[in-house]
């Protein structure tokens, strides 16, 4: 089976998700076509996963993808995120369509209510154009798909941490409820832009940086980055995936501040290597089972402090984090992905 993955941008969670799908189904032939964004070129794909980069506009990317499908006899066209999802309107091929929103655009909180209504209308229309399979990254995303179209088919494929494919997970059992003797480190991973709400992370750091070290792994918008730095946060910039994992492993707590989210692989990576996760209280993170602690700098600052000061709370957070690990595993994710591809092929015939 040949699968063509289409994404508007490489780097970050989408590229890691594509790597996961390739690792889950190594017997399939996977290719990637993308429109690369400046500053997000930290992806590292294995040699057997061919990558085609398309310069220019989104339209150029989508048309190039359809030409590749027609020319390359691909069985599956796997579209990642809302912009690549627009390729569903282009006719003239018989590939099965799989769409992974990686968090629907109408979940955004940085746009107007009218814009969210428009995004939802577009998604509803695209779901009705042709039979397809939505690979949802969380139960929340599957529920939203059903709300958009109760005749749609969605299959949840958990965002397995890439470390689950290797040896890191076996090392996580050495983690205990003890607080490290050195200055405790709180980490967040992601692009510095409104979705991840770096300003909230900065506000928490400003309150607590005298006690704890705060690290943001990633880069992005200059104004928000400056706010992080002024609040005492060490910003690493874009670094290779191996170094990202090293930063996470060296931390005591992963604090996820995103304002809206699909199923962040960075949080799954933290859980996989035994680093506890506390998240902002958003529906997707609740559906995934992560410990949550409100939506304000005050409530999250209290949770961070409580985590390090209270053994019972720390033990509870660690137990919930590891429960997430047990509910998202390689075997079940592989089975679900194969089922999604099989459904999409059948729907296209």
TrEMBL record:
<dbReference type="GO" id="GO:0016757">
    <property type="term" value="F:glycosyltransferase activity"/>
</dbReference>
<keyword id="KW-0328">Glycosyltransferase</keyword>
<dbReference type="Pfam" id="PF13579">
    <property type="entry name" value="Glyco_trans_4_4"/>
</dbReference>
<feature type="domain" description="Glycosyltransferase subfamily 4-like N-terminal">
    <location>
        <begin position="36"/>
        <end position="156"/>
    </location>
</feature>
<keyword id="KW-0808">Transferase</keyword>
<dbReference type="InterPro" id="IPR028098">
    <property type="entry name" value="Glyco_trans_4-like_N"/>
</dbReference>
<dbReference type="Pfam" id="PF13692">
    <property type="entry name" value="Glyco_trans_1_4"/>
</dbReference>
<protein>
    <submittedName>
        <fullName>Glycosyl transferase, group 1 family protein</fullName>
        <ecNumber>2.4.-.-</ecNumber>
    </submittedName>
</protein>
């Amino acid at each position: 089976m040949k699968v063509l993955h289409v994404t508007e941008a490489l780097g970050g969670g989408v590229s890691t998700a594509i790597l996961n799908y390739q690792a889950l189904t190594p017997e399939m032939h996977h290719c990637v076509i993308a429109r690369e964004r400046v500053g997000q070129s930290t992806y590292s794909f294995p040699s057997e996963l061919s990558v085609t980069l398309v310069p220019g506009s989104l339209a150029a990317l989508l048309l190039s993808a359809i030409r590749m499908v027609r020319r390359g006899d691909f069985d599956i066209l796997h579209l990642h995120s809302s912009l690549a999802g627009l390729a569903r309107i282009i006719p003239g091929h018989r590939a099965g369509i799989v769409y992974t929103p990686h968090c629907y655009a109408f979940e955004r909180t940085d746009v107007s209510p009218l814009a969210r209504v428009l995004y939802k209308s577009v998604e509803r229309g695209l779901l009705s154009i042709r039979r397809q399979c939505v690979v949802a990254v969380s139960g929340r995303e599957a529920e939203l798909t059903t709300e958009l179209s109760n005749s749609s088919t969605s299959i949840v494929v958990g965002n397995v941490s890439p470390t689950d494919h290797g040896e890191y997970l076996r090392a996580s059992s050495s983690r205990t409820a003890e607080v490290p003797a050195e200055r405790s480190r709180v980490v967040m991973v992601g692009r510095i832009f409104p979705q991840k709400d770096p300003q909230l992370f900065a506000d928490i750091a400003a309150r607590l940086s005298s006690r704890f070290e705060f690290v943001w792994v990633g880069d992005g918008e200059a104004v928000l980055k400056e706010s992080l730095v002024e609040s005492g946060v060490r910003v690493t910039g874009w670094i290779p995936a191996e170094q990202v994992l090293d930063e996470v492993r060296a931390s005591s707590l992963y604090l996820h501040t995103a304002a809206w989210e699909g199923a962040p692989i960075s949080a799954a990576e933290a859980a996989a290597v035994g680093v506890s996760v506390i998240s902002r209280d958003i529906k997707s993170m609740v559906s995934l089972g992560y410990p949550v602690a409100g939506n304000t700098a005050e409530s999250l600052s209290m949770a961070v402090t409580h985590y390090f000061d209270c053994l019972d709370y720390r033990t509870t957070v660690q137990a919930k984090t590891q429960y997430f690990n047990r509910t998202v595993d390689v075997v079940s994710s592989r089975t679900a992905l194969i089922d999604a591809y099989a459904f999409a092929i059948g729907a296209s015939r």
